[in-house]
Amino acid sequence: MGRLLIFFVAAFILDVFALIDLILIDRRRVRAFPKIVWGIIIVLVPFIGALLWFFVGHEWGTRGGERRTIAPDDDPSFLKNLRRDEDQDERIRRLEQELTDLDDDPPTT
User: Fold this and answer.
1) In CA terms, which of 37, 47, 63, 71 is 20 to 30 Å from 78?
2) Could you tell me the pTM of the whole model?
């Protein structure tokens, strides 16, 4: 009797967890059926429905529309901005040098 009670409590907790996960997950990460059908499956087939949800219906990982973080040296926009910054620094150095050269010239009268 005690083992059966533990199984039912564990199945109930798994079902509640599966329903909460189903409600909170983005619909683009749901496979096989729409979210409402998965909800019905989880409620009508308690333990097995939750297991099916986690193994069949739930898409794990970062596939799809999610952006993954990449290193700066692999990011084309970062490298483009880096080149732009280097070009701006070089332009500033040239302008400062021109200003220094103009300051060094004797005034013409």
Assistant:
1) 63
2) 0.54
| CA neighbor of 58 nearest in space, from 33, 75, 78, 87 | 33
27, 47 Cβ separation under 8 angstroms: no
Locate the domains of the chain by residue range.
1-60, 70-109
Residue ranges of the alpha helices (H) in the chain? 2-24, 35-44, 46-52, 76-104
Which residue matches tokens 């739930």?
Answer: 58
Structure tokens at 83: 């080149």
Taking Cα atoms as reference points, which of 20, 44, 23, 47 lies closest to residue 35?
Answer: 23
Q: What is the pLDDT of residues 60-93, one digit of tens each?
A: 765 555 566 677 777 777 777 778 888 889 999 9
